[in-house]
Design goal:
With 147 residues, the protein is of the alpha+beta class. It contains four helices and six strands. The chain is 32% helix and 32% strand. The longest helix has 18 residues.
Length: 147
């Protein structure tokens, strides 16, 4: 017999994550091969664009892990869109991931009303789509070879 709970519990969350990671490593030679390498741990990667006054003009946040760059957020202020700033932010994140963290690929998600065409122009390929996530919106999953 089990009791199910739906409360947030940080300690259980940490324990669950640890146990899943242990099971995954035991089951995957690929994950075991990452152990004791620089790619073993997730490392944040952030690129910021500041205007002349020091205000945020755009930015990119992501992380590297397992020789992959994962772009989480990319945003450019409306006043600077169309100037190439988004391309520069993405290129700098890719350069850093490739040159300083040995990443060979990049991945990201974007919604249909955001920037799928922008990413395609940057060399990304759509490898998946999730319809109605959220309702009425399509999410695209894109990847790119960095080498």
């Amino acid at each position: 017999m089990f009791r199910l709970e739906t409360e947030v519990d940080k300690e259980r969350h940490r324990l669950l994550s640890k146990r899943l990671q242990e099971d995954n490593i035991a089951a995957s030679a690929g994950l075991r091969a990452l152990l004791a390498t620089p790619a073993e741990h997730e490392v944040p990667l952030e690129v910021w664009a500041l205007d002349r006054d020091g205000a945020l003009a755009g930015g990119l946040t992501g992380r590297t892990w397992a020789y992959w760059l994962h772009v989480d957020l990319l945003w450019v202020d409306a006043r600077h869109r169309g100037s190439g700033l988004g391309s520069r932010l993405l290129a700098e994140a890719e350069r850093t991931a490739r040159a300083e963290r040995a990443c060979t690929r990049s991945r990201l998600e974007t919604w249909d009303f955001q920037a799928p065409e922008f990413y395609r122009k940057q060399g990304y390929e759509v490898i998946g789509r999730v319809e109605d996530y959220p309702p009425g919106v399509t999410e695209f999953i894109l990847v790119k070879q960095l080498v």
